[in-house]
TrEMBL record:
Residues 112-235 form the Thioredoxin-like fold domain. This is Thiol:disulfide interchange protein. Residues 20-88 form the Disulphide bond isomerase DsbC/G N-terminal domain. Required for disulfide bond formation in some periplasmic proteins. Acts by transferring its disulfide bond to other proteins and is reduced in the process. Pfam families: DsbC_N, Thioredoxin_2. Residues 1-20 form the signal peptide.
Length: 239
């Protein structure tokens, strides 16, 4: 009887502890929302450093605070023994996606060599760094690129995206414009360009604020331009 009572009290203690932690996290979330105004917090959990909470904002930022939310820390937590940047590691985890969930039917497929190394990219046809990426990719072989047209730099970007999508060979037209500067032909009035609208909606949902943004097959995100040798390293690292 005493053993049963002891186990019952032990379970009750663990339940109370878990509830207290959840209540503290809820209080932190409520306080941060009140501080920033509106529904700004995506998640709250205990930080790697005792006494702090990790707060992920819907803007994609990660900050730290204490239980009372009397201080907010913006910066990185480094593991002193391993020298690993735990904040950077966590941000990488948060930015990952389920690659298999991408609507590849809305992308332009650019295949090189055996196409074994797969990645997706969100790009604007007027983006200077996207043009640099297109040139760098000429040095990277055995890839399948799913290119999501993502015209966010203005009306001319949207017009060029429609012209590229509606051309006889969108992959070739994209390369000709981005690498050689050849203006895409006018799009027929009957062409269905709804994929571009879906791409823009998807990009916003994924928190893509700039181009180029790449996603590797393991779901990891690359924000911005990478030279050919760096992209090779990232592609080789994907299992």
């Amino acid at each position: 009887m005493k053993r049963v009572l002891f186990l019952g009290l032990l379970c009750l203690g663990f339940h109370a502890m878990a509830f207290a932690e959840t209540a503290e996290e809820a209080n932190v979330q409520q306080s941060i929302n009140a501080l920033l105004g509106g529904d700004a917090v995506r998640s709250v959990r205990a930080a790697p450093m005792p006494g702090l909470y990790e707060v992920v904002l819907k803007s994609g930022e990660l900050v730290y605070t204490n239980t009372e939310v009397s201080h907010i820390v913006v910066g990185s937590i480094i593991d002193a023994k391993t020298r690993v940047n735990l904040t950077e590691k966590r941000l990488d985890e948060l930015s990952r996606i389920d690659f298999s969930a991408l609507p590849l039917k809305d992308a332009i497929v650019i295949k090189k060599g055996d196409g074994s190394r797969v990645f997706a990219s969100f790009e604007d046809p007027n983006c200077g760094f996207c043009k640099r990426l297109a040139k760098a990719l000429q040095q990277v072989d055995n890839t399948t690129q799913y290119l999501f047209l993502y015209p966010i730099l203005g009306p001319d970007s949207e017009e060029k995206a429609k012209r590229i999508l509606c051309s006889d060979d969108p992959a070739k037209t994209w390369q000709s414009w981005m690498v050689e500067g050849k203006t895409p032909p006018a799009a027929p009035a009957s062409c269905d360009t709804s994929a571009i609208e879906r791409n823009v909606a998807l990009g916003k949902q994924l928190g893509i604020g700039g181009t180029p943004t790449l996603f590797l097959r393991d779901g990891s995100r690359i924000g911005g331009f990478l030279p050919a040798e760096k992209l090779e390293e990232r592609l080789r690292a994907v299992r």
